[in-house]
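Contributing new complexes? Match this layout with zinc ion.
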Amino acid sequence: MSFRFCPKCGKKEGIFIKGFCENCFLQDNKLLILPDKLQFEFCRKCNKIKVQRHWVEFDSMELLDFVKSKVKSKDFEVQDIEIELEEIDEKNFNALLEVKGLIENNLLSLRGVIKLQFASGTCDSCMKISSDFFEATIQARFEEKNEKQEKVMNEFKLLISEMNKKDPLSRVVKTIKNRKGFDLVLSSNRSAKISSEKLAKKYNSKVIRSFSVVGVDKSGKEKRRYTYCVRF
Ligand SMILES: [Zn+2]
Ligand SMILES: [Zn+2]
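Output block (do not edit by hand):
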């Protein structure tokens, strides 16, 4: 058995790195190179955050992957990074890191912290919505006023919110009730089209589409606002 001891503290057992015991070595050498803080924008309306030009959910992998990509190391072969987010307040979090890796064939687990700071802003989708941007109206019309009306409205809202996961503009901006039924104003034309077609099919009805021209875009193309009317 080879005899070794740490020239700094005299320790004889445990992991030795470059001739020193693990503790003494880590006290004098920084193996992880971490940014002190990372700054992001968050949307005060929908709570999404901007990670490298994309607006994503706070708890998405994009944020964690981005934080991981900022972990650099020296003489240390990183094998795995685990991150836990600790909330300080609404705009400040600590990313608590546990970084596992190899140095001179010794497996070490190192800890580190990166501050995450969030500044409030408005994401692209919410910006479009708040500037009164809307694309389509669903008109649901009924022979008579009964419970069916409420049921159909809930079905529409469910479909629209399901599509919201993939299309952030799929949301009801305005609900207008009138004597013949109700109108739902949506920011997403696609979502208005799909949801009205689905429910028309379910109730053996059909969709009557119409549009009005609301302007011209930069390239000279007509900007249309569609209406999808379904009789139930
Ligand atoms: Zn030592
Ligand atoms: Zn937003």
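Reviewers usually confirm one structural detail per submission. For this one: Helices lie at 22-28, 61-69, 124-130, 147-163, 189-202.
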